[in-house]
Amino acid sequence: MKTKISLNNKIILITGAAGFIGSALTQRILREFTGVTVVGVDNMNDYYDPMLKEYRNQANKSARLDGHLNGYRFIRGNIADKELIDHLFYECNFDIVVNLAAQAGVRYSIDHPDVYIESNIIGFYNILEACRNSYKGGHPGVQHLVYASSSSVYGGNKKVPFSTEDPVDHPVSLYAATKKSNELLAHSYAKLYNIPCTGLRFFTVYGPAGRPDMFYFSATNKLRKGGTIDIYNYGNCKRDFTYIDDIVEGIIRVMQGAPERKTGEDGLPIPPYALYNIGGGQPENLLNFVQTLQEELVRAGVLPEDYEFEEHKRLVPMQPGDVPVTYADSTGLERDYGFTPKIGIREGLRKFAEWYANFYCYRG
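The line above is the sequence of Nucleoside-diphosphate-sugar epimerase; the predicted C-alpha cells follow.
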C-alpha cells in the first residue's frame, strides 16, 4: 500500500536541481502543480561544462504555472555541507525531498574517488540525518524521501532483465558501490526512524540538455567536429535507454505515493521502504542506437547529409567498470504506480538532435 500525497501546495527540496534529471523534474513540477515551492540545491561543479547547468537553472527559474504563485529558490551549495543542509531543513520544513545530487560517471570514479565519497556517501548521509531530525518537536516532517540509485549496482550480473530482487553484492565500480550504499543507508533510516523512502535505479537516461559525458552526447560532439567515436565491446553492448520525459513522469508518480508506515508485531516500525528499477524496458543494441543517432543528427542539420559515418567510428574492447548489458525489469513501477515508459529511441533522439542543433549550431 502507498500513502497518497498531493504535490499541490507542498514545499519540495530537489538536490541536483541544475542537473539533467533534477532540472527537468523541477520544471515539470513548477508547471503542473499549484501553490508549490521548489528549493533547488546544486554545487554547479565543473565535472562537465557549467554553462549547461546555468542554462538548465535559468529554465528552472522561468518555469511557472500561469495564474499561480509557484516559487523556485535556488541555493548554490554542496549537500556534503551539513550545516547548510541542516539550516535549509530547519528554515523550510520540507514536505518532500528528492535527492538527485551525486557525483556521476562510472569511469570518472576510477581516478577521482574522493568526490564520490564526499557527495554520494557523506552528502546522502546529511540528507538522511536532516530527514530524521525533521520529525522532532512534534513536526510532521518529511512525508517522502525519493532518492536516485543506479542500474550500475547490478555490476556484472549475467541474468537479464535486471530485477530489484537480484543480488547486487559485487559492484564493478566505486560509483556503483556508493549507490548500493545509499540503498542500505536509506533502508536502515527507514527502519530506525520510520522515514518513508523510495529508491529509483535509473537506466541510461538521455534527451535534450542531457549530460555531455553520456555516450550519445559526447559522440555527437565528436562527430560534429569530424572526430572518431569509440563503440565499446566491439558494438556488442545493449543499453536500456530511457528518455528524460519518461523518467520525470515516473519520479512524479513515485513522489505522490509513499511507502506506508506500519508497526510490526514487535512494536517497531516495519521499514516504509521501496526500491524500483526505472528504465525503458527495451534494450537497444549500441550499433543500432548509434545508427539512429546519426540519422537524426543529419535530419536536424547537425551533420551534413553526405557525412561518411563509417570513417568516424571505431570498435574497441569493453572499458573497466562498464557492463555489456543493462536491461530493466520495471514491473514493480507498473504494478504500484501504473507507469510504463512510452518514448522510443527514434523519437527521443530526434528531440535531442533538434535541441542540440538549436543550442550549439544555431545560437548567435
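Note on the example: The mean pLDDT is 92. The radius of gyration is 20 Å.
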